Structure formats: C-alpha cells, structure tokens
Amino acid sequence: MTDPTNPGPQGMKEKLVRTKERWAEEGRLLTGNSADPQRDRLPPGQRLVTDWPVLDLGIQPAVSETAARLDIDGLVEAPVSLSWAELMALPQEERRNDIHCVTQWSRYDNDWRGLSVTDLLARARPRPEARFVTMESHDGYTTNLPLADLDRPENLLATHWEGKPLTRQHGGPLRLVVPHLYFWKSPKWIRRITLIAQDRPGFWEVRGYHDRGDPWMEERYSA
Ligand SMILES: Nc1nc2c(c(=O)[nH]1)N[C@H]1C(S)=C(S)[C@@H](COP(=O)(O)O)O[C@H]1N2
Ligand SMILES: [Mo]
C-alpha cells in the first residue's frame, strides 16, 4: 500500500499509479524464472518492442537549460553542483544498451550520448560510509540504488538518444540510464543524487516494487 510518508508528487495520475500498485500486490507478469545475462539477452517474462513507450507519473516537466542543474551531495567530500553550461563542457561519452521495463517491454540497442556517471561520482569523492543513493527528479519522482549499482561504467547521464537531444517525454534534457536494472531505476529529468549510509526506498519501492530490480532475477516486486 501507499506509504503515507511518501505520497508522491501532486498532479500525478493516481489511477495509473494505483493500477501499477495492484500489479505488485498480485505479482502480475511473474514467470518465476531467472536467466543468465551472458547467455540470454531477453530477461524472463519480457517481450521485445521496436517503438519506445513513454512511462511516467503523467507529469512531464519542461526543464529549461537554466533549471537543468545536477547536484551530487550527501556523504561526499566535494559536493558537485553543475549548471547546464558546466555539464555541457564536460567530455561526452557514448553507450549502447538494452532497456527492460518492469511492465514487460524490452528494447534493444539504444544509442545514448551523455556524461560518465563514474567520473562525476569520482569528482564528488564519496565518503566511506556512503552505501546507497537516493535520486530526485523535476517531476517529484524519486528512486534509490546501492552506490555500487550507480557507480558502473556502462551507466550514463544521457543528454542525447540516437544523435538527437533527448526529448522532454523521455526525460530530456538529462536522464540517468542504468541498463542492468529495470528502467524505473533510470530517473528522467534528474536533478539530484544524494549519497547516504542507509537505504531509502523511492516512489515505486514504497509501492510494492523491488528494492533492487534486477531483470535477470525477475526482481519485479518486493516479496
Ligand atoms: N522522473 C521520472 N523518471 C522516471 C519515471 C517517472 O515517472 N519520473 N518513470 C520510470 C519508469 S517506470 C520507466 S519504465 C522509465 C520510462 O522511461 P521512458 O518513458 O523514456 O521509456 O522511466 C523511469 N523514470
Ligand atoms: Mo517502468
């Protein structure tokens, strides 16, 4: 059930959120299988799409370039707070990866351009007690990760998709992409990454979704 301490942003589509909450309660789409990411490209219970579905809380904030900042704070030696211009002056990197959404669709070979997550984290100098992150977006969405799942070379703070600036509906101007976990762990319109010592579940994690969300283990829902 919805955690009253995490009611979610105002203006979200309550019915849609309630439906996804019910899926978690019912364990919908669970196959009970796991798979080996080295051998099976498609995780259990997923089906391949070639379009790119849009999923969010129904709030798609228009984030101007003056509003588009990124902060990395919390348990760090050197908090990072970068304007859009400062972010754009950093080296750009490319990644190609697959997307796996918990609502069952997967999409192969997405080409991204953006900023290295590992470089930005290194710049912030995490303190030894930092073990998790909580992330905030401009629509009020939050999600959490173990720091080790964020600090991986394949992750990207994406500004471009297939050579074009990331559209507003897909989280432009800046979104995180964490391809080894279900896509709800990849916040669109990202604003802040806070390093913390103890895990703090986010929007979907308090609504029955798994804390980690590994698609190969079919970690759709919490037990
Ligand atoms: N800020 C924000 N990020 C978000 C969401 C959201 O509602 N708000 N939804 C998540 C979910 S459930 C999915 S599946 C993906 C969808 O990204 P897409 O719309 O680009 O396919 O974004 C994730 N990141
Ligand atoms: Mo999702």
TrEMBL record:
InterPro entries the UniProt entry points to: OxRdtase_Mopterin-bd_dom (IPR000572), OxRdtase_Mopterin-bd_sf (IPR036374)
Superkingdom to which the source organism belongs: Bacteria
Chain ranges of the Oxidoreductase molybdopterin-binding domain: 62-204
Pfam family, one: Oxidored_molyb
SUPFAM superfamilies: Oxidoreductase molybdopterin-binding domain
Protein name per its UniProtKB record: Oxidoreductase molybdopterin binding domain-containing protein
Organism: Muricoccus roseus
